[in-house]
Amino acid sequence: MLLGAAFVWGVAFVFQVEGMDHVTPVTFMASRCLLASVFLAILVIILRGPKDAFRFDPNTIKGGIGCGIAITIANNLQQIGVQYTTAGKAGFITAMYMLLVPIYGAVIFRRRTNARTWLAVLIGAVGMYLLCIKEGFSIGQGDAYVIGCAFVFAGHIVCADHFAPKADAVKMSFLQFFVSFVFSTIWAFIAETPTFEQIWDARISIAYCGFVSAGIGYTLQLMGQQRTKPEAASLIMSLESVFAALAGWVMLNEAMTGRELFGCVLLFGAIILVQTKRRSKAEDAELPAEPAGPERSTAELPAEPAGPETSTSEQLAEQTSETETQ
User: Fold this and answer.
1) One-character DSSP codes across 235-248
2) pLDDT tens for residues 10-35?
3) Do 150 and 128 meet the contact criterion of CB atoms below 8 Å apart?
4) Local structure of 111: helix, strand or coil
5) Beta pairing partners, 133
6) Are 181 and 82 in the same domain?
7) pTM for the whole thing?
8) pLDDT tens for residues 291-320?
9) 222/147 same-domain check
10) Same domain (yes/no): 139, 217
């Protein structure tokens, strides 16, 4: 599920770049989220039934609103950024959120962060420098927007990881895109001048990003995160950057300089380093501890009912004896 999400998200960068030839970015995002909301509303009705389709438990509501606010900010920053950068670069810069997830965990949840994690962050920073920083230590406008998107996406991963295991994944996915549609529409009418002609001209890009990338991709993410640890999930979803670069090369004939390619290699290597190390360490810490509790409780359980079972059998025997005597 998570690999499928990474693939459709990677290819979506191409459609996002092409869509900017016809429509303004926030209008594009509002239209995309509208289609995703409609698609997911139909899916919720099919999977949960008409009566229970729109009954939401508190965790689904909180997760849907939190994730919806996060993707509103992140996706709009990304969409503005792809006007000024390539699909491949945008994909790798966005993937920087994988490095930020463990840092957020350390800051927000006070999880211990080991030396390898900080080494990966350092390597990723060097990769970002080679990929984005130009002569004179300046950064491109598009790259700056996408970097901001990465920081917010990391928050989305943390929010989804917190609520998805306790929520209805399909309903939560619907809610987050409906929330994003509402906020993006308000944003579009304030900052832009949306027209139906613009939206119609970008209909293919909007349709892919709405139905496939948003509707299917984010639902696969939430369903996959219900069964996968956040570190492993981040590792799989980091392949989005590779798919984005390949799609940009095949579909848009994009190319990177040697410096930018080396930056991509360093950034992707840092992502692999931080996620694989965190996953294996978590497994090593958890696996020996899990069977200890059940083994003790299993050994202790038979001893507790022994007294009541004996006294009950003795009482029955005495009653039977008295009856026979009578």
Assistant:
1) HHHTTHHHHHHHHH
2) 898 889 889 999 999 999 999 999 99
3) no
4) coil
5) 139
6) yes
7) 0.72
8) 444 443 333 344 444 444 444 444 444 444
9) yes
10) yes
